[in-house]
Amino acid sequence: MLSGGEVDRKRVGEIVFADRGELAWLEALLHPRVVDEQARWRTEQTAPLAVVEVPLLYETGGEARFDAVVVITASEEVRRARTEVADIMERQGRLLSDDEKAGKADFVYVNDGSLEDLDAFVRSVVQRLAP
């Protein structure tokens, strides 16, 4: 799995997404470390607003660590066009639905438009959140 100090992410994905026990083991190993690293990083920030991307935020109960949550999603067609993962539906099957995430979020954006549209959304969120 390790080659020259690098992780073969594709192979790890094949293993853990084929065996829920292996996935649980990996998540139990990684998630506490990621949370600790995010907390350390946040203490170092001096800007009035800091952004953290957390792919499994709601699934891991992590939303309580943040003042606001922004959910950015896209239609299934757009997701398929943007990903190289062949078994995306298997992986998405363990996630909350977009509707559930949107219902919990403070801000929601469906990213099916242009980069300019996304930039405008981000600017509007920053304007509302920045002191």
Helix percentage range: 40-55%
Could you state the CATH homologous superfamily of the largest domain?
P-loop containing nucleotide triphosphate hydrolases
Mean pLDDT: 86
The low-confidence parts are: none
Task: Tell me what the CATH architecture of the largest domain is.
Answer: 3-Layer(aba) Sandwich
Q: SS-based structural class?
A: mainly alpha
According to CATH, what is the topology of the largest domain? Rossmann fold
Query: Which radius of gyration do the C-alpha atoms yield?
Result: 17 Å
Highest CATH level, the class of the largest domain: Alpha Beta
| Domain tally | 2
Number of strands: 4
Q: What separation lies between the terminal Cα atoms?
A: 46 Å
